[in-house]
Write a structure and sequence with these properties.
Layout (H helix, E strand, L loop, with lengths): L5 H49 L13 H14 L25
Length: 106
């Protein structure tokens, strides 16, 4: 998760103990847990409200589906699977032949 290993977690815990002290650390951890729980509830309610507003066509909608990278990736994969689109091989130039040059394009 997040690319953090055991050594990094131990270092973070050690710095937290030094920075906040062992007396305040359990209170801060409890507050962080409550805040994360509230954020998760808000995200789930936003997702459910969005699904409700969009209707039954988008019943399986996840918030990560709205990421532009995911949308582009999905459309590229669908286009590649489409039977009408075939990859075109680049033209092969003969020995000594120069590629076409468009003066207006440069």
């Amino acid at each position: 998760m997040f690319g953090v290993g055991l050594a990094e977690l131990a270092l973070i815990a050690f710095v937290a103990v030094i920075a906040f002290g062992p007396d305040r650390l359990p209170v801060l951890a409890k507050q962080a847990g409550i805040m994360l729980r509230k954020a998760r509830v808000m995200a789930n309610s936003a997702r459910d409200e969005l699904r409700e507003e969009l209707g039954p066509d988008y019943a399986d909608l996840e918030l990560r589906d709205l990421d532009p990278r995911t949308i582009v990736r999905r459309h590229i994969i669908e286009a590649m699977e489409d039977e009408d689109i075939r990859p075109v091989a680049p033209p092969v130039l003969a020995e000594g032949q120069r590629p076409p040059y468009d003066v207006d394009a440069t």
